[in-house]
Amino acid sequence: MLDIRGRWKGVLLPLAAILALSACGSKTGENESTGGAVADTSGDTVKVGLLNSLSGTMAISEVTVRDSIRLAVEEINAAGGVLGKKIEPISEDGASDWPTFAEKAEKLIREDKVAAVFGCWTSASRKAVKPVFEENKALLFYPVQYEGLEQSPYIFYTGATTNQQIVPGLDYLKSQGKTSVYLVGSDYVFPRTANKIIKAYAAANGMTVLGEDYAPLGSTEFGTIVNKVKASKASAVFNTLNGDSNVAFFKEYKSAGLTAATMPVVSVSIAEEEVKSIGTQYLDGQLTAWNYYQTTPGAANDKFVKAYKAKYGQDKPTSDPMEAAYVSVYLWKAMVEKAGKFDVAAVKSASDGVTFEAPEGLVTIDGATQHIYKTARIGKVGPDGLITEVWNSGQPVKPDPYLKGYPWATGLS
Amino acid sequence: MRSLSWRAGAGFAVGAVLLFGVAPFALSDFRLSLLAKYLCLAMVAVGIGLAWGRGGLLTLGQGVFFGLGGYAMAMHMKLADAGPGEMPDFMQLYGQLDALPWWWRPFANPAFALPATVLLPMLVAFLLGSLVFRRRVRGAYFAILSQALAAAMAILLIGQQGTTGGTNGLTDFQGFFGYDLDDPVNQRMVYFIVAGVLLLLLAIARQLMRSRYGELLVAVRDSEERVRFLGYNPANVKLVAYVTAAGMAGLAGALFVPAVGIINPALIGIVPSIEFVIGVAVGGRASLLGPVLGAVAVAWAKTTLSEEFPAAWTYLQGLLFVLVVAFLPGGLASVVRLLRRRRRPPPDPAPVSPAPVVAQEVTA
Amino acid sequence: MTVIVSQLFTGVSIGAVLLLIALGLSLTFGQMGVINMAHGEFIMAGAYTVYVLQKVITGAGWSLLVALPLAFAVAGAMGVLLEFLLIRRLYARPLDTLLVTWGVSLILQQLARDIFGAPNVQTRAPDALTGNIKITDDLVLSNNRLFILALALLAVVALTLVLRFSSLGRRIRAVVQNRDLAAVSGIPTGRVDRLTFLIGSGLAGVAGVALTLLGPIGPTMGTNVIIDAFLVVVAGGIGHLKGSVIVAFALGTLQSLVEYSTTVSVAKVGVFVAIVAFLQWRPQGLFTLRTRSLA
């Protein structure tokens, strides 16, 4: 019955031969740098990649980022392009799935030969594409606030790192006389790292952390967590929940009788778009920590908000990650123009000190970390669903992804 | 019988020529690595075809076994990258651990990690299967339990960020048994290994299907009680199919890691587990090659369509489930069979392979 | 002490939510054996009904009251349509029903995305339901959860009465217990199936209205809850409402107590382990129904 020898010779022999022939690639550590993919900039256009989730759970947020990148590209093209070349955006769908992100990043770099890629939202998607960009020596512009502790030579981070968002949020709570916090977050990298930082900060600044709870992403049952928060009698809550969970959390929070007046919540993942889907009924007076709000004053922002609404609809709000994405395209343009060419190495070495008058105010690239100087802003959700600033850092804060400049943070990374 | 095994041999040869001789030259490096990914999914499909098509066990939790195999391999590769005695990079970042957790340690040794990619999923399947089948939990109950298992496993992995990488999963691998994964030549080698393993799994599945056991399995699917009256224990018959399918999924997961470069909890939960099934249904659950071709075709369609119309893919996927399962339960394989029969009306009287059955589940 | 009481209340109310979601399933899955994965999307349809209705009726209280029967009708109609177009053909193939309805649920989710947009939408809850009843300073019972508890119990009572005393209920039970005999006795089994599906799916719509008080209203809200609901019915036993009721409250309480002392993930995994262990002990669920079929 198992007479397979004869049949198998035909398959196994060539198989073995091919394996023997092909197993002669380089070993690890030999590190004969393969040079990476080279962007094709020969035509009169230059291609850039847009890598966002257009389907799946993250589409909610990432589509708005894609839209604002497109807006920046159109504006730049209307003004003559970059180094005389029009930008040709190629959009790919990451489908809220990390392996897909890696696959599409590879496609953009190798098949389309783009000069730079803009996109990714979650830390997980960034971690998934990071090796792809490093291996191919290509550029990624990442526009979302994140947990720090990272500095890839091929990624530019235009969202806030922890010392531009979380630390100012804590400073603000401290200045308001809040001496104890309860930490609530979704179960993934950003909240866990953020809470580690918060605990170190609290220990050094006389604050007590009364509890720490994580809900699985997408979880919508917050009865128990809110009970715990209430029982802790903390003077404030630091909220790193993401997505759907925020809706359930704030509905529960309100019906347990907790309010912004008695126990304010500082959220770091709730922007204008999210306020709309949670409902001001539940959010009125709660705090957020970002670097940009739709209401941020300034001519650059007026122009951005106006252009965005004109293109995508009057009811569409603008938010921090959208602004950071919009800014990232302009920063890339400025870097390329300073370098005089699209070559990745040249662009990278030209990056230090490049500035842009952004909707959030003046931003400057810090060449050493490839992050940008950003002004920290604490905002309060108003009854109209917009967030208004109640405090800002006065000047752009130097990015410090490893928190090296904060004595209490030693041992965190 | 003689002519049949000749045909099967020829089929394998054609497959081998296509996979080894044509694809590597016709496709760019990038597309070839995509094909490697599809072939990994196809391996899972071979197992599902066996358990579901032949055994009537709708395994909606294959993601669990895929993940076990994948994580076992990924843990080994992470440890190999880190070097002896060192901790993987992500643990140093997020783990706040002083030493490697005990359950990571054995995976440093390839002699443990490699067999574990297959044996670990099989062991879990064996434990779960013997609990569930022996108590005659079946049909719908089994399907729902498998789904819940997938969900529970994903939640568990996500919750242990410091030691499993949480939602990020394990990624950023440098080498695969000493070979630099950045090198296109080595990527090609990974593809060859994947293709070779797939052919091997197909051969195993074919032998199983055509053996006495295979007939018993179909009998259990069609009438469990009757098999019991004949003196066999249906629980054992089902267990073998379930464990085999789990092993195949584990192997697929293990090869997915070097081929794609990441393993994460999102590949384990309910949605991917059910997506494994659709390719099998499209291709033809009860046939040997149907699941493989179906899985590759569906994965390819997903890549191609989602490049152009992201929303359209969701509709198409939904429609595939509805139309194929409701109106063409035998999948495309049944269409092929129908055409072939029409072309060549009276087949030779000798018994053809186990009757081309259109699967019919027994009500639980 | 207050902690335990308030956790018990939370547990009971989690149980009530589970029960409300699972109640429709205990009809379609429990009584008819149909695994309808699109049940979650019927819940979603119920929730969107509130959203659409609030564009017309601005008073939050009235809109909620009107939404309850309307959501029942909307989701019920979707259920009947699904039964008529697809499920009817698949009664002999329960596992295939699972896959087909999964496909339907994908399509419905994408439809919701295309109609209402991918982001969650907001609805207003009446002020009376965002407040709470204060027992002591530390112990408050939130009104929305009390409302859901009442709604769940009401639904159970109504469903029990219908099944036990109405002629439709008698017919449903007859079909469940012996379809052939019921058909021979002149019961139009096809129409009874459709009516059962109408009620089961309609209850999903009602659950959707209730969920707007607690969580997000978006295209994926159904998928978040569907597996839990199925587990409730599986562990409760086929053909018995009683089983689903007991299991729902037991699981809710278990989850809230475990979660309080550990974490959400541990609680979720713990609940799953508990169910597998329970099925080892009672493979047919808490209550079993004697039917004349073999299995």
UniProtKB/TrEMBL annotation, chain A:
Keyword Lipid metabolism: no
Keyword flag Lipoprotein: no
Entries under Gene3D superfamilies matching the protein: 3.40.50.2300
Signal sequence range: 1-25
InterPro entries hit by this protein: ABC_urea-bd_UrtA (IPR017777), Peripla_BP_I (IPR028082)
PROSITE patterns: PROKAR_LIPOPROTEIN
Key words of the record: Signal
Alphabetized PANTHER family for the sequence: ALIPHATIC AMIDASE EXPRESSION-REGULATING PROTEIN, PTHR47628
Protein name in UniProt: Urea ABC transporter substrate-binding protein
From TrEMBL, chain B:
Domain of life the protein comes from: Bacteria
UniProt xrefs under InterPro entries: ABC_transp_permease, ABC_transptr_urea_perm_UrtC, LivM-like
Main location: membrane
Topology within the bilayer: Multi-pass membrane protein
UniProt-annotated location(s): Cell membrane
Any Pfam family the entry gives: BPD_transp_2
Compositional bias annotation for Low complexity: 355-364
Segments crossing the lipid bilayer: 6-27, 34-52, 112-133, 140-159, 189-205, 239-263, 315-336
Region (Disordered): 345-364
Keyword annotations from UniProtKB, A to Z: Cell membrane, Membrane, Transmembrane, Transmembrane helix
Keyword Transmembrane helix attached: yes
NCBIfam families, A to Z: urea_trans_UrtC
Annotated protein name in UniProt: Urea ABC transporter permease subunit UrtC
Organism of this sequence: Phytohabitans maris
Encoding gene (name): urtC
UniProtKB/TrEMBL annotation, chain C:
Subcellular location: Cell membrane
Signal peptide segment: none
Ranges annotated as spanning the membrane: 6-27, 34-54, 60-82, 146-163, 195-217, 229-251, 263-281
Membrane topology: Multi-pass membrane protein
Entry keywords, A to Z: Amino-acid transport, Cell membrane, Membrane, Transmembrane, Transmembrane helix, Transport
Annotated Pfam families: BPD_transp_2
CDD domains per record: TM_PBP1_LivH_like
Family of this protein: Belongs to the binding-protein-dependent transport system permease family. LivHM subfamily.
Name of this protein: Urea ABC transporter permease subunit UrtB
Species this protein is from: Phytohabitans maris
